[in-house]
Amino acid sequence: MSVGYFYAFFGEIMTREYDSTYFSADDCLLSGQCFRFQAENGGYFVNSDDKLCFVRTAGDTTFLTCEEEDLPYFENYFDLSVDYGEIYRAAIGQGGALAQAANRAKGVRILRQAPFETLVCFLLSQNNNIPRIKNSVRLLCEKLGRERVCLGKRYFAFPSAADMAEADEDFYRSIGAGYRARYLLSAAKAVHGGEILDENTPLTNFLGVGEKVADCISLFAFHRTEKFPVDTWMEKAYREDFGGSAKNRSDMVAFFEKKFGAYSGYFQQYLFYYKRNLS
DNA sequence: CACCAGGTCCGTT
DNA sequence: AACGGACATGGT
């Protein structure tokens, strides 16, 4: 068998290099927007939908490794066609806590994640913490997702709505979803039954999706960067760093989105990552 | 034992 | 329209 035939059959693995200034593996993955990654060998194996890549930052370079045919998918996933230098400078121009956050978190990018996967993950996220969310998502994929191999590594794809619609609430409780089990099954059945899930979908029609989860799906799946999801950490930032006095989250959202406009989503991620991980 | 975690639902004012 | 308790579960 020739070498050429070998690669044609198994697919070619390739690595691309990028300037790490505005693309850091740590900042992108640890900023709480995605839940399917695992630290290993100084970098991260990252799953999205049915795919796998390996991303690692060393010095001024970020290395992205994946199957050649998946490279366009992951360049889109990491939003690599957008200039984050301009976004970073806009944050610096705001001064105060935001400038400080951006300085520490300038490698953050807003990922472009698969819509159904994002819906499910953020249904799980409500009144929950990131390690538990990650664990539930991992179990969900291991038990309902199709087994695959990429980069010589065995993993499980994110399950389809059809796969998820066949499970029952007890199954979702068994992966640690708790009271959210009902929301997961309801969403799976709705999407499996033909409910559209695109940027025009009224997301709060899904059971268990309120304003915050809807904003996260809008931002992380549909790149609606004018959205500013407010969770407990952003409440803290609102009080401690912006001197806000409103008490309900809708008013905080309105405050931030008016202040930051089309930069809202980017700035929110700088602040979230900084408040939760870096301060 | 409380309180918290990338909140939302639902019944009561 | 606004408020507050309930909700699963594991970690501090």
Task: Please provide a written account of the structure.
With 279 residues, the chain is an alpha+beta fold. The chain is built from 14 helices and seven strands. The strands form two sheets. The chain has a five-stranded antiparallel sheet. A two-stranded antiparallel sheet has the order 6-7. A hairpin with a 2-residue loop joins strand 4 and strand 5. Helix 6 (115-125) packs antiparallel against helix 11 (211-222). It is globular, with a radius of gyration of 19 Å. The structure holds a DNA duplex (13 and 12 nucleotides).
Write a brief caption for the model.
With 279 residues, this protein is α+β, with helices and mostly antiparallel strands.
Which secondary structure elements does this structure contain, and how are they paired or packed?
Layout: H1 3-10, E1 13-19, H2 25-29, E2 37-40, E3 43-48, E4 51-58, E5 61-67, H3 71-77, H4 84-94, H5 96-104, H6 115-125, H7 130-144, E6 147-150, E7 153-156, H8 161-166, H9 169-174, H10 181-192, H11 211-222, H12 232-242, H13 249-260, H14 264-278
Antiparallel strand pairs: 1-5, 2-3, 3-4, 4-5, 6-7
Helix pairs in contact: 4-5, 5-14, 6-10, 6-11, 12-14
The chain binds a DNA duplex (13 and 12 nucleotides) through helix 7, helix 11 and helix 12.
What are the defining features of this structure?
single chain; 279 residues; alpha+beta; two-stranded antiparallel sheet; 14 helices; 7 strands; disordered N terminus; DNA-binding
